Amino acid sequence: MSPPVIDEPALHGARSGLRAFGLPRFVSRGASLLFSLLLTLFGLLFVTFLIARVVPVDPVLAIVGDRATQAQYDAARVSLGLDQPLPVQFVRYLGDVVTGDLGRSNLTSRPVVEDIASAFPATLELATLATLIGVLIGVPAGVVSAVHQGRWQDQAIRVVGLLGYSMPVFWLGLIALLVFYGQLGWVGGPGRLDVSYELAYEFDVTPVTGSILIDSALSGAWDVFRNALSHLILPALVLGYFSLAYISRMTRSFMLEQLSQDYVTTARVKGVSERRVVWVHALGNAMVPLVTVIALSYAALLEGSVLTETVFAWPGLGLYITQALFAADFNAVLGGTLVIGAVFVVLNILSDLVYTLVDPRAR
């Protein structure tokens, strides 16, 4: 029996097709990102565990109070597992977090997971709108600044960005409240809703996402929607101003680099319009690193809106962590810190994935 004849060109073509499909490389990169994500989250868990053990506050005393007897103190310490060696405590802490148990808040007497689930949508709503403001204004401002480098447009945009970096957010928030709410009455005051609309929100709006704007729009409660928007717009503008300053500065830097490349000169020589050269070719290439900048800016707003939420009494995760910190409620503080850190890590990983989609060279 003669051996089978192997069609070498066909075999080579099949192998080339598999390589072009990129499945092995895709699987390898996915496994690498997953391993990096798990390792980073493990490190985050370890750091939060150490913070809980080295802070000069006794978690047992925060629970039982300073008038508890020694027997009550010892019983609470045993129930929390603090009488065990540190490695045993860490394993127990790791198991609790994996199962979604972040402990119980001493401030609200509720599970920390439930508190975070009710507070995080407010922070997400505020940070998302602030990021949209920063992107929609900051990116065009950075492009204009780069195109008119050294001219009055560039100087004006850079001054606005410098002010955004320099002014403390709590001071700007207080001034904005004084002027636009206290004096002019153009926007709503602190909080997410007026007191008169809280009952309407409770009875007329079906909670779906936790965002008052989205839920009230889905329920058709447009009066609640307008009132919620009047409360949201001012803190979002204040927070978005700082995002705008950072994004416009980075956009300007990336655009200056792209406008000095040879392909821009070649396009101009070929007669391509200046608008297309700037807004399509140069900005298209600048968007590759800018995606990562926007993602990290969004993550920074999610974790860094503590002062804004405190000034505007915005019931988000930042205000929740601040109140828990003043009450020495470390289950709530560490739970909120862990969630914010996890969101930061996930957004960083997602920005890497989007980076590979935007830039074919990264694949």
Automatic annotation (TrEMBL):
Q: Carries keyword Transmembrane helix?
A: yes
Would you say which domain of life the source belongs to? Bacteria
Q: Coiled-coil regions in this chain?
A: none
The cross-references to Pfam families, in alphabetical order and at most eight, read: BPD_transp_1, BPD_transp_1_N
Can you say where in the cell this protein is located? Cell membrane
Write down the PROSITE patterns for this protein, in alphabetical order: ABC_TM1
Q: How does it sit in the membrane?
A: Multi-pass membrane protein
Q: Which GO terms describe its molecular function?
A: dipeptide transmembrane transporter activity
Recorded GO CC terms: plasma membrane
User: What InterPro entries does UniProt report for this protein, alphabetically?
Assistant: BPD_transp_1_N, MetI-like, MetI-like_sf
Span-the-membrane segments of this chain are 33-52, 126-147, 159-181, 228-247, 278-300, 337-358
State the UniProt keywords alphabetically.
Cell membrane, Membrane, Transmembrane, Transmembrane helix, Transport
Q: Which family does it belong to?
A: Belongs to the binding-protein-dependent transport system permease family.
UniProt-recorded name of the protein:
Peptide/nickel transport system permease protein
Species name:
Aureimonas phyllosphaerae
